[in-house]
Each structure stands twice: as structure tokens, then as C-alpha cells.
């Protein structure tokens, strides 16, 4: 099978995938197990990659592309943070408020007093900008939200309410979030819209509270709203996005009378199995179920299946389904082309992926012209394979065509860099291109710098989060604490542990065990740094003469970190 695939790919030319006689008669054979019981009404490794030259990105001014691409099924609910125009006075006021908010976790009372003395002009743009900066600290965000709402010259709009409700839902403060919705209804019943409830529906789904997700959907009637097919689709999308796909499928099947079956409804579930779960077997089963029920497949249906095969590395299935789609007179869209390119590049068929890219450029209709995601589909697999020079060439080509890199583009290059200078050079280039680092960017770099034992740079990066990025979330604290502990920086790790708890973040059980063991040893006066670092880590005994053999050295692994230790005599 492998030889046949290699032979098949070796003959690909720019038009091969579009009109392959070898694949034109191929079919995707799908087997369907019995459908599940449609009753929902219950309460229910990576290796180090080398880089030959330092990164020096010369970027012309442009606006970066959105971070979401065809591999993300829908954007997050935090759309309230987008669309804020740059304003010098606004930025000055935002920075002034941020200085007042700094240290909220240490002295909330003092911060509240400072806000009362803050002489800024409160506006919807100011509130939204500040909330976007402190969205990872719900208590600070809520304190600021209440302070702004008490200003006589200002009144919260729907946008600010939605932003705050989203933040509260993210941290599972659902009672407080419902309180804000009730406040909105008292102020004006008309400002409570289906979008308001959709925010909480998505947050409940993210917390895997399926019964409460459905309950929030039926709350439409409480607010005088009638949930239609659009709201039902939003419910299904929320469940699927956060991997509650089986529940979403049951909900779809048992509501046929209320919401008649249509292609879009089934595409949402299919996309959940394909992109949220990447379960090839379940995706094939559901595809076959659509055929049995007579649901017509459209370009979105084929796109979900091809994306699933692409992510799973099933290149043969990608090409077969791609050809079958064209036989069905369904024109592939840009997302499908991007998935095929990604599958080819991931299977090290870079030449064939490049040929398909060139054929897209020659497309006279212009419907499938390459975009930033197309180039990302090449850049990401190349970086993962350590072929940095080739990835850089496609990056330069993308820039030369006026296409904007996104977070994913930079993350691909970040994984390959090997020095601290390259880290900060690329970070500066990222900021200069108006592509602001996300908290995931900082988490990746903190882990990398801790692995390199560059403690000063770690703290410099942590300070940069407070100045330029959103407040650190729970994941950022845990990565920092584990990295410091494993490097023997115990007092510093404990300081950030206490800071994390003061901000309302609960530590992981592993983190709690490490800290408590160290504190116990410190109180008894018998703990050492080495004892503290090795909490719960089993060591392989080595003989005295084996210490020079690399394969017998001890290794400590914890939360993405790996450290070699010479065997002790």
C-alpha cells in the first residue's frame, strides 16, 4: 500500500489532483455501525529542531490575518474585543487604568481606591480595551466593570455587557453572569438578545455542562425570545466545538419534528467529528448516516471530511475524496485546497503541494486564489520537519504578495529557534507586524526558556505579558511554576504559586503536591533543593561506572520540560 501511494504521488503534476484518471473511479468505502440512541433528555512529541541561521524578518506595515483558519471550526466568543480603532488618547487612558489595576491580586482594596482617583474619560472603547487586557483575571475585570458602570457620564452598552458575561463564563462564574443578564433585562428587556444567551451556551459547553447548556438554550422563552433554526445551530456548534459531539448528535436526531433535518445541521455534527475530535471512524459513520437519510452533501461536507483525513495523515483518502468531489460536480473551495496542500506537505510531498499552490494561482475564476492559510498549510509542516529554509522562502513569498501572517505562522517558527536572541527578535517582529502575541505564545516561550535555564529572560518575558499582552491565565502560571521548580528556583516558584492562588486560579494536583512537599521540608529544616525538585519522580538506579554513558543518565520530565542529570555516585 505504501509503495502504491509513493508511486501515485511521484506522478502528480499541477493538474493531477484535479483530473487524475487513477483516482476518478475511486470511492470512499464507509462502514456504518448502528446509530446511537437519540435520547438526550437527561441530566447529563516533539523532537528538537535545529535552525541554521538566525531569524531576521523584514516586514512591511500590514494588518495581520485572523488567527483562525480552516483547521479551526469557528472563532471564539470573544469577538467583542475586535474592531477597536487606534486612538492616542484612548491608548493613554488605557495605560493609565492598567497601571491602576496592576497589583489587584495583592491589594484589591487599594486598587479600588486608586480607580476612584483615576481621571480618565470612561467610554465604551476604553471599557472594552481594558477588559480585553485583563480578561484572564475575572475578579479584576468585574471590579473595573462595576467601577465604570457607576460613572454618571457613562452607561454600559450591549457590547460591554457581552464582554463581561463572556469573561465570567470563562471562569465558571455563571451565577454572576446570569445576574448581569437580569440586570440588562431590568434596564431594557430588548437588549437581551439570542447572542447574549449564546455566550453562556458556549461557556457551559466549554465546561462540559451539557445539561446546563441545553437549559440555557431553553431560557430563550424566559426572556421572550423564540429559538429558531439559527439558535439551534448555535447550540449544536457550541457543543461540537468543545468536543461534546456525541451529545450534539443525539440532540439533532431527537429534534427532527421541531427542527427538520437539513444539510447545515448535519454539517455541524460532521465538522465536530472531523475537526474537533478528528475521529475518522466516527466521521465515516456519520457520513454514511447522511447518505442513508438522504441528506445531500455540499462543499462544506466534503471539506470537513477532507480536513479530517488531512489531519489524520490519510493522504490516500484525501486524494480519493477530492477526486470524488469533482466527479460530483462540486467545485472545491479555498478551504479544501488548503487541506489538500497541508496533507501533501505533511506527507513530505512538498513538490506536489507547491504544484497545487501554483495551479491555484492560475485559477481564472479567482475563487481559490491562495491566501495566508494556504501558505500556513505549507509553512507549518515544513517547520515541524526542520526544513526551516524552505518555510522561510514561502514566508517571504507570502509577504511579497501582500498576505498577512497570523499567530500560527509565527508559532511555527518559534518552535524551531534555538537561542534567546532569536526568541526576542522574532517576538519584536511579531509585534511590529501588528500581530500581537497571545497567551499561548508566551506559554510556549516560557517553557522553552525554562528548558534552556535562561531565568532572567523568563522573568523579562513575564513582565512583557503584563505590559503588552493579556494578564497571565492559569496555564501560564502553572508552566512558569513548574519550570522554576524543576530548575531549583524554589522561592520564586512559591511566590508565583501564591500569586496564582490569590487571583483565584486553582493549582493542578501535581503543582500542589510539589509545593506542599517543599514547604513541609522547609518547615522541618530537612529539605534540600534536589529533594524538592524530585517530588514524585522515579529515578532509575545507575552504577558508578555508567555515568559517562548518555543512555544511563537520569532525566527529569515534568509539564513539557526535560532535563538531563548526571548519575550521582
Main sheet: which strands, in order across?
1-2
Question: Count of DSSP helices?
Answer: 28
CATH topology name of the domain at 437-535: Serine Threonine Protein Phosphatase 5, Tetratricopeptide repeat
Tell me the radius of gyration: 26 Å
CATH superfamily of the domain at 437-535: Tetratricopeptide repeat domain
CATH top level class name of the domain at 437-535: Mainly Alpha
H and E string? HHHHHHHHHHHHHHHHHHHHHHHHHHHHEE
Tell me the β content.
under 5%
Q: From the 3D coordinates, which CATH architecture of the domain at 437-535 would you assign?
A: Alpha Horseshoe
Q: What is the straight-line distance between the termini?
A: 52 Å
Estimate the helix proportion, in percent.
Answer: 55-70%
Note the overall shape: globular
Which residue ranges are poorly predicted, with pLDDT under 50 across at least 5 consecutive positions? 1-85, 527-553, 563-569
